[in-house]
Design brief:
Length: 378
């Protein structure tokens, strides 16, 4: 019965995606800022989260996991900086349980930005001289808002199942030159047994369309024309649907220590990628993570992600290719209604260290029930 439910869930997601995959033309790596991650727990576990996530970050990883937020409103915050502070990434989410904890509403906001980019469009004067005073700076920022809804669809002694959906709104801005608006939908399911966990989410279910508009002044157009650059007017960027399927298992070491390994597979349909399984249309990218919890208070985590082939170090002929990956480590602890998580991740690969530190904070807003003191009626 359990396998039948899981099988039907996967088949339903594939059927929903099939018409879109068959007829649409997609741009590879579109809206990649949405693939960075959310929360230090997920980043420390190599982004293997689709099956076990059950907090406010579930709006990002798998909206079905939002039903894990019980009784009280929670808020999640995360900040990370990449490439020595050049790129800044912020994530915030709030989850609100409703209707006797059977449904949950979620709101997530993401921003990735690169600031102070030099604009050298007018660096060279018409007479060929260089005027550094003409260099101005601009920012390139990507924003996304996820409106989430999750609901329990089955609760029993043997298995709990939930369903979730996201409405995704995207806004992208490149200085004063270009802006884009986009909209998409994600849908996911989760199933949990006594120790096992399963999750699947279809991202950009109906494709996500970003409509770009460009705003160049006459002077900027003239420089672009004289330097043989195209002057764009409008364009549409289409993000292909993808499916993430994963599973996890809880291993009881003792009454206080639990080990939870998890693996997930990101299946994309936008063309050949440098992944473990790479086809002309379909590519599969695995994620592996593990979490060790002590009394559900202290946590240690590790993960591997972004497996791909690269040139071997020291190969001057550039012929020998080896498998590389991105490792990550992390830890966290919970004190009453506050959880602080940390992740130490590698942006490159295991042989080319380029690390960043990520911190995230979770707050649980519990209601304080105060006793009402009234004066007895005589």
């Amino acid at each position: 019965m359990e396998n039948s439910y899981i099988g039907r869930s996967i088949i339903a997601l594939v059927i929903l995606l099939s018409p879109v995959i068959s007829f649409a033309q997609f741009i590879e790596y579109s809206n990649e800022f949405l693939n960075i991650g959310a929360g230090a727990r997920g980043l420390a576990m190599g982004s293997a989260q689709v099956a076990t996530v059950k907090d406010g970050t579930a709006g990002y990883w798998n909206p079905a996991g939002l039903v894990g937020v019980k009784d009280n409103v929670t808020a999640d915050l995360m900040h990370a900086e990449y490439f020595s502070g050049i790129g800044k990434y912020d994530f915030g989410a709030i989850a609100i349980p409703i209707q006797d904890n059977k449904r949950t509403l979620g709101l997530s906001v993401l921003r990735f930005a690169v600031d102070d980019i030099p604009n050298t469009l007018f660096l060279v004067q018409p007479d060929g001289s260089i005027n550094y005073n003409n260099i101005q700076s601009f920012s390139s920022a990507d924003y996304a808002v996820l409106l989430s809804f999750a609901q329990n669809v089955r609760e029993s002694k043997d298995m709990n199942c939930s369903f979730g959906i996201n409405a995704k709104i995207i806004y992208r801005k490149v200085g004063s030159f270009a802006t884009a608006y986009g909209f998409g939908i994600d849908a996911g399911v989760q199933a949990h047994g006594e120790r096992w966990h399963f999750g699947a989410v279809a991202k950009d279910l109906t494709s996500t369309f970003n409509a770009w508009t460009f705003h160049f002044t006459d002077a900027e157009k003239q420089v672009l024309y004289l330097t043989n650059n195209d002057i764009p007017v409008k364009s549409t960027e289409v993000t292909a649907p993808s499916i993430v399927i994963g599973g996890g298992y809880d291993i009881k070491i003792s009454k206080s220590i639990n080990v939870s390994p998890e693996a997930s597979f990101n299946v994309t349909f936008d063309g050949k990628r440098n992944t473990v399984i790479s086809g002309n249309t379909i590519s599969v990218d695995p994620h592996i993570g593990v979490e060790v919890s002590v009394k559900n208070i202290f946590f240690i985590r590790g993960g591997l992600t972004n497996f791909q082939q690269g040139l071997a170090d020291g190969d001057t002929l550039n012929q020998k290719r080896v498998w590389i990956y991105q490792p990550s480590l992390g830890a966290g602890f919970t004190i009453q209604h506050i959880t602080l998580d940390y992740a130490f991740t590698n942006l490159a690969n295991q042989s080319s260290p380029l690390y960043t530190n990520v911190f995230s904070l979770r707050l649980v807003f519990s209601e304080k029930k105060e006793q009402m003191h009234t004066t007895p009626t005589p």
